[in-house]
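User: quick one, fold this
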Amino acid sequence: MAPRHVVPMSTSQAARGVCVLGTEVVLDTRRSTPRGAASFDVHATPAVTVHVIHSPTTKPTTDSRWPLDPDMEVVVTIDVTSRTVDDNQVKISYYDREGRELAVAWLYLTCVEVSLDVDWSRSGRVKSKGKDKAKWTWGPDGHGAVLLVNCDRDSPGAGGPDSGQADVRTLADLQDMSVMLLRTQGPSAIFAEYQVVLHVPESDADKVRVFHSVRGDAHPFYKPVLGPDKLSYVLERAGHGDSTFYVEGLAFPDRGFSGLVSFSASLLEVPHKDSPGTPIFTDTVVFRVAPWIMTPNTQQPLEVFVCR
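Assistant:
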């Protein structure tokens, strides 16, 4: 995961930010604390859940005001995707020792959904919200997506295995690949300032290739977006639901390759067009490339099938 998402608060002007569905946003209240403040309280719109993290000895007063404590944290989460920009609000009010309100800090939050999903349960279907999709375990009770090396030849005219072709030539070729879904939901205007980027570690890039299913005039077009020569891909139409990707293996596990490969989707804040983005959220999935299994011709057969 990306580092903790911290939003600075201010009593001089309202703060604005973006959060990802179900993730925590830490409110930096120390910068906004006015001089002479002794306590504070927090109020938010219905979709926002507020968590005040404090020591066991720190208790709120009868009017739900918290004493200012340097070890206290205010964390908020949102479990509903925003319909409009800034539709969630958080208000922090500061009070002096006599209970008079000294200042108010406002935060406007837009909640979006960013989720990278694979068949982590090995059921044949891509399921969302997998808790351990970034881990892989063996066995009938294990979990983690499986990836095949695309080593057959579905195109008769090709001069080698399908993995040697940087394009999808037949629909049968897709049957040898694993599906990966990147879900993005939220107000389309917010993605003008934020990017969703799909990326692969450099150490894994030569082991896999990824195609993005893009709608064409008559038929879908499968655009190569990740692989040995490309480590990242910016999603052009973020915020419009599921984007389908097809992943193929290029190398079998061997002495120098465990078979594990990972992909990540990151939400980047881009303050300026030419500036590098700052990640505020990352979701990661892991595949294991199926090994090459070959039975020797000296092994005793169990069944023999003959065709004419």
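User: anything notable?
Assistant: The helical segments are 171-174.
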